[in-house]
Every structure is written in structure tokens, then in C-alpha cells.
Amino acid sequence: MTTDPPEAWADLIEGLTLLAQYPADESDPLHCSHDTLHVCADETAFTADEIARLDQLGFMVHRDGGFYSYRFGSA
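and the corresponding C-alpha cells:
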């Protein structure tokens, strides 16, 4: 018997699935620092709708490129 994952798990999986479409670093796509998850994805390749969905899921565009999340950080 399978059950649906908890909402946070489903959001994380959906977000990472979207972000994996446009990797900026294929060998080291993720890292955590200072309670923040950083995702190396090419933010310029995403549509406005995709960016909005990622924001709803907890992934924001970083001013220096890529995405970050406090929701899925290391704390």
C-alpha cells in the first residue's frame, strides 16, 4: 500500500524536478550554507509561470544566479 508523501516532500520533489530541467552545474547541483539550500539552475531559462510556481514552492531566484530556499535549508 502506498500513500502520498507529506506536502513538504511533494513540494521539494516538484521544485527539484522543475529546477533539474535547466541545470547550471551538472556535477554539483545543490549545496547548503547558512541554513539555505542553493540550487545551481539557469534562472534565465525559466518562464515567468515557472518562476512563479517555484516561488510558491519555496525556491526564489538568487540575485547572483541560480535559486535558493530557506524552506528546504539545513536548519
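(Above: one complete record from the training split.) The chain has two helices and four strands.
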